[in-house]
Amino acid sequence: MTQEITLIRPDDWHLHLRDGAMLQGVLPETARHFARAIIMPNLVPPVVTGAQAVAYRERILAALPEGAAFTPLMTLYLTEGTDPADVAAAHDSGLVKAVKFYPAGATTNSHGGVHDVDKVMPVLEKMAEIGLPLCVHGEVTTPEVDIFDREAVFIDTVLDPLRRRLPGLRLVMEHITTEQGVAYARAGGPDLAATITTHHLILNRNHILVGGIKPHYYCLPVAKRERHRLALRQAATSGEARFFLGTDSAPHVDALKEQACGCAGCFTATNTLPLLAHVFEEDAALDRLEAFTSLNGPAFYRLPVNDTHLRLVKHPTPQTWPEKIFTEAGPVTVFNPGFPVFWHVES
Ligand code: NCD
Ligand code: ZN
User: What is the pLDDT of residues 189-226, one digit of tens each?
Assistant: First the structure.
């Protein structure tokens, strides 16, 4: 029997589009299925000022395929030199929907991020005042802390103290990967939310490391033990308003993934929706997929839900998608879940 589900058109609340030839190559993959996305500012150089965000938004709009209806929601990259007045002006004009906090050195192009939270307090105080959300990459970078513990340690030593210091700050815990992340998000009030990626619902650390190292499964925060994956599955499929989709689709050309020191990032823009339908069906939660992809995010960001729809159909035979997207910057491997997927986006 064919099964189908119609969703209010989804949004992606955490997306890397890059710039130039890569932007041109990967943008259609997102614009095909998503109405809007929160665009990560970790370019080289990063998108720090309102003026840089205006220019980046123009480049994204110019790269859109003819007839695509896609709205990029811009963010600013928080640095210790960020000017609170510039952030407030970018928010007032409607341009910027969030500010991104990268602990310095935590991930791709994050060296210009925050070393000392004290130095960014004036910006965070202004954001609390105007209701502008802070998107947080929640990992400590202390070399002594094991990479699998970096999220849990960040929650205890950076995030919780910050939230106590500035309770009015609206905050998104980005791409949570642990049961501690799930529990902390759940314990917060309506001003705390968490995004969950597609790949963290599918992968645990064995998938990366057992039977040979899988560079296309390596991302940051790195996938954790199975019990953490199960906690994320339970959170995503719960329908709870505080959890929503942020794919963290992060394209790198294959040459940079498949080398002695490979880049972090999974590219899931192409097949995220069929994969999510598969995951939610497996957990008997298809009726809660729309909350995760299309309702909870806009509610947190205080934006209207989309007024168009997207239909997914489950076919009797496994569906296919391109193994790679051939951009002018080079080939980018599409995330391979390692199991057959019967769902397909029809329209
Ligand atoms: C992201 C990237 O490549 O920009 N990589 C990743 O593994 N997720 C950065 C990030 O979001 O951490
Ligand atoms: Zn990211």
Answer: 999 999 999 999 999 999 999 999 999 999 999 999 99
User: Residue 132: which pLDDT band, with cuts at 50, 70 and 90?
Assistant: very high
- What residues contact residue 259 under an 8 Å CB cut-off, 6+ apart? none
* Span 100-119, pLDDT tens digits: 999 998 888 888 999 999 99
Alpha helices in 9-116 (DSSP H): 20-31, 50-63, 84-92
How far apart are the C-alpha atoms of 254 and 98, rounded to whole Å?
A: 30
Mention every residue, 6+ apart, whose C-beta is less than 8 A from residue 136.
101, 159, 171, 172, 173, 174
Looking at the CA of residue 14, tell me the nearest atom of ligand 1.
11
SS3 120: helix
Q: Average pLDDT of 132-158?
A: 97
CA distance 62 to 24: 9
Ligand 1 pocket residue status of 108, Cβ below 6 Å: yes
Q: How far apart are CA 342 and CA 122, in angstroms?
A: 50
Reported as a single tens digit per residue, the pLDDT across 41-56 is 999 999 999 999 999 9
What is the percentage of the chain residues whose pLDDT exceeds 90?
97
Three-state DSSP at 236 gives helix
For the chain, state the CA radius of gyration. Answer: 19
Burial class (CB in 10 A: 0-12, 13-18, 19+), 134: buried
205: CA distance to ligand 2 center in Å? 18
| Four-way CATH pick for 3-345: 3.30.70.20, 3.30.70.1450, 2.60.40.10, 3.20.20.140 | 3.20.20.140
- CA distances from residue 18 to 21, 247, 250, 269 in whole angstroms, order as listed: 9, 15, 8, 13
In the chain, where the domains are located: 3-345
Residue nearest to atom 5 of ligand 1 (CA): 265
State yes or no: is 248 an active-site residue. yes
Q: Which DSSP letter does residue 103 get?
A: B
